[in-house]
Amino acid sequence: MATSCASAGRLDGGVCIVPPRTRQQTASSRAQTSRQELLEQLDEAVRQIIAAVRQIEHPESLRVDDWSAKDTLGHIAFWHESFARNVNALVDGREPDVLEGTYPSLNQRGVEVSRAMSVSRIAGRIRRAQATIRRCIVKLPAGTAIPYRKGSRDYSPEEHLVTVRGHVIAHLHRVERARRRRRRD
């Protein structure tokens, strides 16, 4: 990884002097850079799914698999809030209150919680959760295990960011396909 003089060293007679790093510092810096990049990718995925659902006229009536586009956003909000609560608890030194139940029952609960909410309110929940994730996940030391659901394995911060981004993007693609189908009909 290249280091600029402005960010890591000082000029001494026109020569950039970069302080030596230990292997651990270098690995930690790579992990943090990687985590930051993954976080930015998740930010973009969140922005895209919110924008996609907001662009749909009557998102509650657009079928996306078993749910509506609005329900899909509520599902994402539910899981995103769980992720945010867990990383916030870990940063605060508390035991996370991990979701318990089967995926189908948890998914249904997440959709039902959001049904009476507007798309704007659901989007606000996702944005607040993302802000918590953004603030907390960078503070977690390498090797931290983030719980996901009781009965599931824990994930490293990087794995969790990759998994959540993939989850959001998969739903985004389903929403976009449903929008294209609607336009053709």
Topology:
Blueprint lengths: L4 H4 L1 E3 L2 E3 L5 H32 L8 E2 L2 E2 H23 L11 H12 L4 H19 L19 H28 L1
Antiparallel strand pairs: 1-2, 3-4
Helix pairs in contact: 2-5, 2-6, 3-4, 3-5, 3-6
Task: Explain what this protein looks like in three dimensions.
The chain has 185 residues and is mostly helical. It has one domain (39-184): dinb family like domain (Four Helix Bundle (Hemerythrin (Met), subunit A)). 64% of the residues lie in helices and 5% in strands. The chain is built from 6 helices and 4 strands; from the N terminus they run H-E-E-H-E-E-H-H-H-H. The strands form 2 sheets. The chain has a two-stranded antiparallel ribbon with strand order 1-2. A two-stranded antiparallel ribbon has the order 3-4. The radius of gyration is 20 Å and the shape is globular. The relative contact order is 0.16. Mean pLDDT is 86; it is low at 1-31.
